[in-house]
Amino acid sequence: MIIQVKPDISDSQKDRIIQEANQSGYKITEVKTQLSTYLIGIGKANFDIRKLGLQEGIQDIHIVSDDYKLVSKKWKAKPTSIDLGDGVRIKDGDMALMAGPCSIETEEQIVKTIEHLKATGIQIMRGGVYKPRSSPYAFRGLGIDGLKLWYQHAKAAGIKIVTEVMQVSQIEEMYDYVDIYQVGARNTQNFNLLDELGRVDKAVMIKRGISGTIEELLQSAEYVFSGGNEKLILCERGIRTYEKASRNTLDLNAVPILKHKSHLPVVVDPSHGIGIRQFVPQMALAGVMCGADGIIFETHETPDLAYSDGQQTLDFDQSTKLVKQIKDAFELRKSFI
Amino acid sequence: MIIQVKPDISDSQKDRIIQEANQSGYKITEVKTQLSTYLIGIGKANFDIRKLGLQEGIQDIHIVSDDYKLVSKKWKAKPTSIDLGDGVRIKDGDMALMAGPCSIETEEQIVKTIEHLKATGIQIMRGGVYKPRSSPYAFRGLGIDGLKLWYQHAKAAGIKIVTEVMQVSQIEEMYDYVDIYQVGARNTQNFNLLDELGRVDKAVMIKRGISGTIEELLQSAEYVFSGGNEKLILCERGIRTYEKASRNTLDLNAVPILKHKSHLPVVVDPSHGIGIRQFVPQMALAGVMCGADGIIFETHETPDLAYSDGQQTLDFDQSTKLVKQIKDAFELRKSFI
Amino acid sequence: MIIQVKPDISDSQKDRIIQEANQSGYKITEVKTQLSTYLIGIGKANFDIRKLGLQEGIQDIHIVSDDYKLVSKKWKAKPTSIDLGDGVRIKDGDMALMAGPCSIETEEQIVKTIEHLKATGIQIMRGGVYKPRSSPYAFRGLGIDGLKLWYQHAKAAGIKIVTEVMQVSQIEEMYDYVDIYQVGARNTQNFNLLDELGRVDKAVMIKRGISGTIEELLQSAEYVFSGGNEKLILCERGIRTYEKASRNTLDLNAVPILKHKSHLPVVVDPSHGIGIRQFVPQMALAGVMCGADGIIFETHETPDLAYSDGQQTLDFDQSTKLVKQIKDAFELRKSFI
Amino acid sequence: MIIQVKPDISDSQKDRIIQEANQSGYKITEVKTQLSTYLIGIGKANFDIRKLGLQEGIQDIHIVSDDYKLVSKKWKAKPTSIDLGDGVRIKDGDMALMAGPCSIETEEQIVKTIEHLKATGIQIMRGGVYKPRSSPYAFRGLGIDGLKLWYQHAKAAGIKIVTEVMQVSQIEEMYDYVDIYQVGARNTQNFNLLDELGRVDKAVMIKRGISGTIEELLQSAEYVFSGGNEKLILCERGIRTYEKASRNTLDLNAVPILKHKSHLPVVVDPSHGIGIRQFVPQMALAGVMCGADGIIFETHETPDLAYSDGQQTLDFDQSTKLVKQIKDAFELRKSFI
C-alpha cells in the first residue's frame, strides 16, 4: 500500500494515519523523495482503503500487490521523466543516446570522443573511471582524477556524464562531476550502495544483475526510490546463460515487461548484451524496436587499442552510422502507436 | 574439409580422391543432396588442399574449421534460398511470414484462419496436428486426419503448410500434405528423426532446442544436410533460463550470429520466445530489426478459446496490425544496407 | 484422481464409474499395466471421492494434486521395486550398481569388462550400441549386432544389460537382448518413444533431460507408466548450467526431492554428472549419501583408448576401489535410518 | 608468476628483481600478507625463471598459468589451515561445523543456540546481524548492537562467530566481535569490500556468487589474498539455475574441483543449497562425502518462528542428529584415503 500524503500534512495527521495502518496490521515506512512524501505499508491483511482515505492529509492511496511498490506502474501510471538539464532528458516517448569508451584512458581520448559525440548529436557520454574487474591485477581505472579531467571537457561541451559508482565512499567525491550514477551489474544487489544513492539528488541508472531477475532489478530500484531518490533508470545489459557464442544473452523480453511493470525509463546496452562488435548495431536496433527509451553503447576512436572491452566497441564511423539508424528506427516505432 | 565433386565424376576418380584423403588421415563421408555430391573429410592432420585439388573430378575444396561443415558459411557464402513453389520463398533479403494457431482444432478454425492469412498477405500457415505435451493426459492434436483436412483448404487457397513432425514413422504419411516439416524444440537432437528428414526432398525448419546452444542447432542442421537435404531453415524460439517473468528467453543474439556462421535462413518465433500475448508484436519487430529472414507467430480468431497456447496467441486484428508493422520495419532494415 | 479398479471388475461397472466421473467434469484415461488397471481422471472440479467410492468394482481412489499421477508418491507410498531376474533388483533400501564403457567397441572389450564386473560384484553392465552424437560424422555405435554379441557374453556370465534405445523402431529388435532400456538425456521428451516403451514389459530407465526439470522427468515417467509399464527407474545425470568447469552440473538436490515426490527408484550417474575422471568417485559417494538407490558409472580397461567419454571413465582399479567405498557408504547410510 | 621473496630481502634487491621482470614484459604487483611477501607478475611473454632465480633475495618462483595466482594449488600445494584460536581450526583433513540461525533475533535465542552448540560439540556459530534483503521493507537485522550482545555470550562459552559483512564501513566496527567475516553471495564480486578485507588480519569466508563461476570465486579470493590476507575459506552454497523445485542448485561438483585448484579450505552450505528443511541433512552428508572441509547449516530452536529462512532451518533435534551423522560420514571418508 502506498499512501501519498499532502505537502502540508501536519505531524499529528501523519501519526494518526500511521497508527490506523498499524492497527490494521500494516508496518509503515516513511519515504521522502525530491517530489513527495509517501507512507509505504507492508502487510498481508485485507485492507479497506476507503476508511483510511477519510483521514486528513492524504492525497492518494493505492494498493500495490507487487513486492516492489514505488517503482510499480500499478501505483504511478505516468512514466517517469529524468531531466539532466540543458534540455537533456531520459523519458518514455524519447530516445536517449549514451556512448563512449569502456574506460576513460587519456585526455586525448576524452577530447576525441566528445568531438565525435557532438558531431553525431549524442548528448550523454559513458566511460568508466572505477572499473570492476574479475582479477585484482587488471587495470582498475583512472579514478577520481580521471573523472575530474573528463568533467572539465564534458562540461565545456555541454555533454552529460554517466559513470559507474562502485562503493558508498565514492558517492560524495563523484557528486560534482557526474550526471548519472551507474550501478554496475555486479552491484545490483549491493544494498548499502543502493540505500546511499537513495539519499542523493542525482539520477541513478541500475544495470540488471549478471544473473538478476526482472523482479530483482525492480526491487533494487525500490531501494533507491525508498531511500528518497525518484530519478531512476533501468538498464538491460544481458544475462548469464549456458550459451557461449555471445558474451551475455541480451534479454530483450525484459524491455516490454519492465515498461509494463514500472513507470521508470528503460535503456538497452547492446555492447555488453552480445559482446561482439560487428553485431552490436543489430542488437541496438532490436532494442529500439521493442520499446527501449534509450541505448547505451561503447565507442572508441581505435577499439583495438582500447584498455578494455575493445572486442565489443564500435569505432566512430560505425557509431555515426548506428546513430542515424537508431533515429530512423525510433521514428518508425513512434509511427506505430 | 568439404570436397564438392563434379556432376560427371567417375567412380574411379571418386575412389582415388577418397583414397588420397584417407592416406592423409581424413575419414570421408559421401553426401548426395538434391543439388550436388560432397565428400566430407573429418580429420585433424594439416592438409595440403592444393595437392588434392589436382585430382580430376573435383569442382571445389574448402577447409572448414567449424565442427559443422555443410551448413557453414565458411564453405558456402551464398545464402540458401528455399523455394516452396507458387512464388513462396524463404531466403536472405526477404521476409517470410508464417502464422496460424498453436493447434489445428476444427474445419471452421482452418477456414477462418486461411481467410485471415489471405487478407493480410501471409503465405505460410502454421499449426500443430501432432502436439508434444509434457503430460500424457493433455490434448495431443488431431493427427493425420487433421492434416489432410487442413491441406485440402490450404491447397485451394494457395497457402503453404508448416507443421511439426514428431517421429520417423510420420514423415511418409505427412509427405503429401506439408510444405515444411518442423522439428520441434524437444526434438532438435532427435538424431534419427534428423537423419530421416535428410532423405526427404522437402523443406525442414529446425527449432533451437529448449536449452540448445547455437552450435548444437547448426550441428542438427548438419545432420539433415548430410543426409541429403539442403532445404533447411533455422528457428530461434527462446531458450530456458532462470528468468520466470517470460515463458522463455528469446535469444535474439542468435539471429546475427547464425546469419554470420551459416548460409541458412533464420526465422524468429516471438510467440514462444516471450509467451505473453501483449508483448509478441514488440519482439517480432525486434526480430525483424536484428536480421531475421522470417517471423512465425501464433494467431487465432478467439485466442482465449484456443486449445493450447492461448496466452501467447494474437487475435486477427492484432495479427493484421503486426504484419503491416513487420513490413514497414523490414523496408527500413533494407534501407540500412 | 487415480481410481484403481478391482481385477474382476465388469465392463458395465467400469462404464458406470467413467460416466459418473465425466458428469463431475473429469476426463478419464484408462491405463492397464503389468500389475493393475487404473482410471486416471483429469479435471479441475472439486470432487467428492466418497460418493464415487460407493460404486462397485473399485479397489482404491486417490486425489493426486501433482500434474503427474501414477508416478506420484501421493498415490502410492510403497516404493517400486524392479526385479530383473536372477536376484538382481533395483529398489529403495538397496544399492544397484551399473558400470561399463560409454560405447560397446569390441568382443575383447566386452569380455574384459564382464570379467571386471564379476570380480567386483557389479550385476548390471552399461554400454552404448546406439550413440546419440552431436555431429553426424562421429562414431554412432555398433548397433544391433554389437548388442547381440554383448548379450551372448552377458547372458553366459549372469550379467544384466542396460543400454540406450534411441527410436521406436529399435524397441522390438532390441527386446530379446536388453534388461533395461535406457532413455537418454536428449530423448527425455521424445514422447513417441516414451509411449511405445509403455507397451513393453521390460524395465525402462529415464535420464533427466539436458536441461530438464524434476517435474518434467516425472511427467516423462508418467508417459511410460500410463502406456502400461510400471517398471521405471529415474536417473539424475547432471543438468546444463552456465558453469564450464565441469561437463554438467550434477544436481544431487534432485535425489531427495525425487524420492519424496515419487515411488520410483533413483539412480545417480556421476560420470556424466561431473565429466572429469578423477572426481567421479567423490560424486558417486555423494550420490549414495544423499539417498540414491543406485549408481551408474563408466569404466573401461584403458579409458584413454575408449572410443568416447574417456575423460570421464574410470579404469578397472579405480572402479574396484569405488565399488568398495560405495558399499561402505551405503552401509553407513542404512545405519542412519 | 609468483616470486616469494626472503623475509630479509633488501629494497635494492627487490628493485632489481622488479626491474628484470619488467624488462621481460611482466607487470609486478607487490603483495604483503601476514606470512610473507610476494611479487606477482602478470604478463604473456615466455619467461626463463631460472635466469631470474639467480637474483638474490628470492625464496621461490612459480609459473602459475591460472588467472588467479596466490590461491592456486599450482603455486602452493600445501593446504591452508585457518586457526581461530582455542583449538578451533578450519583445514584440510578436518571437519569444521558451523551452525546457527539465519538472523540473530534476541538474547534468549542466542543463549539457547549456544547451549545447543555446546551440547553437540559445534564450535562455530553462524547468524546474521546485517541481512541483505531483496526488499527494502524486510527485516534487515539487529546490526552492531546485536553483534555485541552475541559476542558477549559466545566469548563466554568459547564459541567462535561467523557473520556477514555487507560494506566497507562495517569492517572496523565488527572487528572486535567476529572470528570469521562472511562475504555473502550477493557481494562475491563487491571488489572494494574484498580489497578492504585483504587489509584485515582475520579469517574471511567467501560464498560463491548467486550465479558465480568457480573461476570467479577463486578470483574473488585472490582479491583478498593479494590485499594481504591469507586466512581464506571458500563456500559452496548453491547456484541459480532454471530448476525451481529447490531454492538453489547445490553444485557439489564445485567441492572436488575447488579442492583440486586451490589450497584453500572449502565449506558446504546445504541450507541455502537446497532450501528445504527436510532435505538439508542428506545434502550435508553428500557434501561431507565429496570432500568438504566443513559444513555450515541453519538451526533454530523453533524454525517456524524464525524471522527468516525458517523453511530451510533445522530444529535442535534434527541438528543434533545431523552432527552425529556428519561425524560418522567424515570418519568413513578418512578411511578411504
CATH topology of the largest domain in chain A: TIM Barrel
Spans of chain A of at least 5 consecutive residues whose pLDDT stays below 50 are: none
How many domain modules of chain A?
A: 2
Distance between the termini of chain A: 32 Å
Percent strand of chain A: 15-25%
| Gross CATH architecture of the largest domain in chain A | Alpha-Beta Barrel
Would you identify the CATH H-level superfamily of the largest domain in chain A?
A: Aldolase class I
Keywords (chains A, B, C, D): Transferase
Enzyme class (chains A, B, C, D): transferase
Protein name (chains A, B, C, D): 3-deoxy-7-phosphoheptulonate synthase
Organism (chains A, B, C, D): Litoribacter ruber
Describe what you observe in this structure.
- The structure is a homotetramer of 337-residue chains.
- Chain A has 2 domains: 2-62, Phospho-2-dehydro-3-deoxyheptonate aldolase, domain 1 (Alpha-Beta Plaits), CATH 3.30.70; 82-336, Aldolase class I (TIM Barrel, Alpha-Beta Barrel).
- Chain A contains 11 helices and 14 strands.
- With 337 residues, chain A is of the alpha/beta class.
- The longest helix of chain A has 21 residues, at 316-336.
- Chains in contact: A-B, A-C, A-D, B-C, B-D, C-D.
- Chain A binds chain B through residues 211, 213-215, 239, 241-246, 249-257, 260, 273-274, 276, 278-279, 282-283, 285-291, 325, 328-329, 332-333, 335-336, and chain B through 211, 213-215, 239, 241-246, 249-257, 260, 273-274, 276, 278-279, 282-283, 285-291, 325, 328-329, 332-333, 335-336.
- Chains A, B, C, D: Its EC number is 2.5.1.54.
